[in-house]
Here is the input.
Amino acid sequence: MNRRDFIYSSGMLAALSASPVMAGAFTGRVVPARGIQLYMVKEDMERDPIGTLKLLGAMGYTQLESYGSDKGVFWGKSPAEFKKIANGFGLSLVSTHYNPCNLVDFEKLTVQAAGIGMKYLVCPWLGPQKSVDAFKVFADDFNKRGAICHKHGLRFGYHPHDYPYKPVDGQLPIDVLLAGTDKALVDFQMDVYYAVTEGADPYTYMRQHKGRFKLAHLRDVLKQRLPAGSQEESACDMGEGIIDFKKFFATGLDTGMRYFFVEQSRFFHETPLQSARKNVAYLKGM
Here is the structure.
């Protein structure tokens, strides 16, 4: 796939930023920062992390969520070095997804993250399980990791994909995890794409579990769904699908959500950086 950055015309940016659909989305609310999950531009980050961060900052993103790359969550730099580089481009590293690790290594990462003022460590993946009891074990583990984060002044979060919304032994794993974790220690990251495509109501979850969904991943769902099994199935850029992001942001902000990260996963006739530019233009219009 061609990874060259695409520069949109000023006319296109003006059209996106003036979208009447998004008008008033933040009336009476604190406008959140524009964030991006770096996994979205992983090939660009792997090839040129500093150059990619510079581009993202120039686009108008102000917050980052990293992930456990082959170079680590700090991309081969010390935590302080990575923070300095990101800050130089107007970017703040708020959170990171981390690779599977034991509690000892997790605490080492927690100390590093706390040392540079990060807010969250987020578990990105558990995988489908044959028994709901497995998710009860995961809930206990989350409580332990949440306690470690709390000790060092951070928060712990979990990012549900599609499988937590699929019944196991007659129960939804997402419900088991919400019930089995201490709300004082464990938060959740709502990926609105997965909630919608699995038939869940993200707004009901945010309202019924007020204060638990503190972070979000943002991508849209095509109006005409692709066949199941297609690569990332029906993901599309914000504003091109069925999700009412005005409603999503308003509900999120009213129920305690504070961090919003673009994370597109299907790139149709565009590169990840082109998608990143389109999505941030849409956010600016809000």
Observations:
- The chain has a mean pLDDT of 91.
- The first helix runs from residue 10 to 17.
- Strands lie at 35-37, 63-66, 92-97, 120-123, 155-158, 186-191, 213-218, 220-221, 235-236, 259-262.
